[in-house]
Design goal:
Helix 2 runs parallel beside helix 6. The model is unreliable at 68-78 (pLDDT under 50). The longest helix is centred in the middle third of the chain and has 21 residues, at 80-100. By secondary structure, this protein is an alpha/beta fold. It has one domain. It has helices spanning 3-6, 30-43, 54-61, 71-76, 80-100, 106-118, 129-139, 144-154, 164-169, 171-183, 185-204, 217-229, 235-238, and strands spanning 10-15, 18-25, 47-50, 121-124, 210-216. It has a 5-stranded mixed sheet with strand order 1-2-5-3-4, sandwiched between helices.
């Protein structure tokens, strides 16, 4: 029996004689951790591609990274907004993880571990988190910024704790991103659409024949479409920082 028939969060795609297993995950779900482990062990891929950039990879493989953060250096380099955005987003994910008693980004950590165990290459396919947050921040209006931060911390408040995992695995979770695209179109472009373009291009540039791709559920549809259409995008353009508004 194929993965596709066993689990709706796994998609098998064959493009230009390359096989991709897209594994759509929730960053706070224990089920996602188990699924990632199972897929990698069963497929035995050449490469495991993960929704991480170098900085976040180091964060998850080096527990002292935040303790080594030089705040003065960050201020001098004008990266304070990026740090604050990262902290807020991480706090939001940690809040959800604590609600379920799970590990934040546990499935990404599992992907790294499983790849190393089978001797697969690890490919980091996501755009630099600093670029993503800078683009997001520059595109948001003055009034949208505080409104967005409040949304992060109230979106799931009315959902019972024991129902949260079920909600994250259901079609209702997709509606959150549809709502997000309507409320904050520029945010959706920066956080979802542009990263889909970036990650699909990185995948196409990888020569591995069999690749397990571990990404958040919100990215599955976009990455799949772009792989199947064989569309390539300029990574330089996707890394550009817009001027201050």
């Amino acid at each position: 029996m194929s993965f596709e028939s066993e689990n709706k969060n796994v998609e098998k795609i064959i493009v230009s004689n390359k096989t991709y297993y897209l594994v759509g995950t929730s960053h706070i779900s224990e089920n996602s951790v188990k699924l990632v482990k199972e897929v990698i062990e069963r497929v035995q891929p050449d490469t495991v591609s993960i929704e991480l950039d170098k900085k976040r990879y180091e964060k998850y493989t080096n527990s002292n990274q935040w303790g080594n953060t030089d705040i003065i250096k960050i201020i001098k380099e004008k990266k304070l907004v990026v740090l604050i955005s990262n902290i807020v987003y991480s706090a939001y994910q940690k809040k959800l993880a604590n609600t379920k008693g799970t590990t934040q980004a546990g499935e990404l950590i599992q992907a790294i571990k499983s790849a190393k165990e089978i001797g697969a290459n690890i490919q980091l396919i996501d755009r630099d988190i600093q670029v993503t947050f800078k683009r997001m921040w520059r595109h948001l209006s003055f009034l949208e910024k505080p409104k967005l931060f409040m949304t992060f911390f109230t979106e799931f408040d009315d959902i019972e704790q024991d129902k949260l995992e079920e909600y994250l695995e259901s079609d209702s979770f997709d509606k959150v991103f549809i709502s997000l695209s309507k409320k904050y179109p520029s945010l959706y472009q920066d956080m979802i659409t542009d990263r889909d373009k970036y990650m699909s291009t990185k995948l196409k540039n990888n020569s591995s024949q069999v690749n397990v791709v571990v990404v958040g559920k919100a990215h599955m549809k976009g990455i799949k479409e772009k792989l199947e259409k064989r569309t390539e995008f300029s990574l330089d353009n996707l890394n550009e920082i817009p001027p201050k508004n």
